[in-house]
Amino acid sequence: MMHLKKQIILVFTSAVVIMVAENGCKKKKDAVADDPNPTFTKIQKEILNVSCATAGCHASTSDASFAQHGLVLADGVAYNNLINKTPKNTAAATAGLSLVKPGESMKSLLYHKLVCDAAHHSSGFGQTMPLGGPYLSAGQVEFVKQWIDKGAPQNKNVVDENLLKDKISCSASFEPLAPPPAGSGFQLTINQFDVAANFEREVFIRRNTPNTSDVFVNRFQLKGRNNSHHFVMYAFNQGVTLPAANVLRDLRNPDGSLVISTLQDMQKHIFLAGGTDVNADYTFPPGVALRLPANFPVDLNAHYFNKSNLIIKGENYINFYTVPSATVINEAKALNLNNTEIEIKPGERKTFIKTFTFSATTTVLMLTSHNHQLGERFIIKIAGGSRNGEMVYENTDWQHPLIKNFTPPIVLQAGQGLTSEVTYYNNTSKTVKFGFTSDDEMNIIFGYYY
Questions:
Q1: Is the pLDDT of residue 133 over 70?
Q2: Lowest mean pLDDT among 23-27, 106-110, 157-161, 387-391
Q3: Furthest CA-CA distance within the chain
Q4: Same fold, 176-328 and 330-450
Q5: How far is the C-alpha of 58 from the C-alpha of 130, rounded, in Å?
Q6: φ, ψ for residue 40, nearest 5 deg
Q7: pLDDT digits (tens, 9 = 90+) for 136-167
Q8: 185-243, pLDDT tens digit by residue?
Q9: How far apart, in whole angstroms, are the C-alpha atoms of residue 40 and residue 110?
Q10: 294-333 in b/e burial notation, b at 16+ Cβ within 10 A?
Q11: Which of 447, 425, 430 is CA-nearest to residue 338?
């Protein structure tokens, strides 16, 4: 009996020891799961709240840019809005990226958008954020990268916070675009220029193409530095007075007021190439090319934002690739369909509709759009014929508008055309009209046809 009692006591004691040990392990595990100072909380507090979740950017669904990016990074919602979510950026989604893909920073658009040297990923992912700077430090970017690579947990401390003490600025390296090989084309440039601190600078420079006889161009390749809102090349209407060649012209004076002579030059423009993606590469379909006469005058136009306290650099390149005239079956021309009748009152959401009718058979090869940050949705429809009302283009990302090529092309007969339907939401305190600054609005169909 005494022996049995000892066994019972021994079993009970062992059970208590096991229970205590299990509870101790459980508490230890819970402590890891609910770390009082998790990595993501530091990211939210020191990076997202400071550089991303700011008014007008990623603070709320009321931001003017929300319709374009669809991403709110405010405290309390950022984590769920990032993890395993498909980006609205078409190129990133096509490449299989998530906004944050736990364990894979190179498959996470957030990481790519924070690295100030955009050369490590393909074009089409858009500009480095925050747009206009100041960029995150190298340590901050590495902190985010390691958090993603370690599974992007919400409530665990997995990255050494000493990285956040590294305040070395992320230096955006930039490699000039190599010109086409000899005999295959030529290059034009906007040479390096300064963009003052806390300023947006938009410049134009007239260049003459170097060809001494007519050439046919079937490919445009562009490259620009970070913080460039757009890079566009224009031709001029016939018979107008041209601005001086090789002289950099500003749209704004140092005090922000507009330069009237530059505004007047802009009324003479015809779109030729480029857009909001300053690192674009566009090739016409086989047998189609754009004719450029000898020493053809063009206006190169670049627009940069600088939200930092330092001077940054602007610089842009465009390559023209040529083909023999014997290979050209159809000569491409540029579409430039502009609706200037825009007026949106404070707090108003309004759609503007305009139809552009063609007087001859027109074959549309490509369409893209241009509007500013109040634009929520840009739609292009076919007007007339059996496809009347058919939507052929839709864009909700004003910073990175869709460039849509049509295979087969859209063939429109005389009397048919294209209709633009552009919806804006004015969340500012002033009435916004058509204009040339980022605070004004635009409504333009760009494209190519023959």
A1: no
A2: 23-27
A3: 119
A4: yes
A5: 10
A6: -65, -35
A7: 888 888 899 999 999 999 999 999 988 888 77
A8: 999 999 999 999 889 999 999 999 999 999 999 999 999 987 787 899 999 988 999 99
A9: 13
A10: eebebbbbbbbbbbbeeebebbbbbbbbbbeeeebeeebb
A11: 447
DSSP summary character for residue 165? G
Q: What share of the chain is helix, strand, coil (3-state, %, to 5)?
A: 20, 35, 45
Nearest C-alpha neighbor of 161 from the set 47, 319, 317: 47
Complete DSSP assignment for 313-372: EEEEEEEEEEE-GGG-SEEEEEEEEE----EE-TT-EEEEEEEEE-SS-EEEEEEEEE--
Q: In the predicted model, what is the mean pLDDT of residues 85-89?
A: 87
Coil, strand or helix: which one is 410? strand
Query: Which amino acid type is present at position 60?
Result: S
Residue 120's pLDDT is: 56
Tokens of residue 42, six digits: 């530091």
Fold observed for domain 176-328:
Jelly Rolls (2.60.120)
CA-CA distance, 199 to 194, in Å (whole number)? 11
Rounded Cα distance between 397 and 377, Å, is 8
Architecture of domain 330-450: Sandwich (2.60)
Is-contact 343 433, C-beta < 8 A?
yes
Whole-number Å distance between alpha carbons of 156 and 188? 51
Distance CA 410, CA 363 (A): 6
User: Beta strand 288-292 with 330-338: parallel, antiparallel or unpaired?
Assistant: parallel
Beta carbons within 8 Å of 58's beta carbon, 6+ residues apart: 48, 52, 69, 71, 72, 73, 74
Rounded Cα distance between 326 and 287, Å, is: 9
Buried b (16+ CB within 10 A) or exposed e, 373-386: bbbbbbbbbbbbee
Nearest CA among 76, 82, 79, 117 for reference residue 98 = 82
Q: Domain spans of the chain?
A: 1-33, 39-165, 176-328, 330-450
Both tokens assigned to 370: 């241009």
341's CB contacts (< 8 A; 6+ apart) are: 352, 354, 434
Tens-digit pLDDT profile for residues 374-406 = 999 999 999 999 999 999 999 887 766 777 889
Q: Which residues of 52-84 are buried (b: 16+ CB within 10 A; e: fewer)?
A: bbbeebbbeeebbbbbbbebbbbeeebbeebbe
Cα 167 from Cα 94, distance rounded (Å): 34
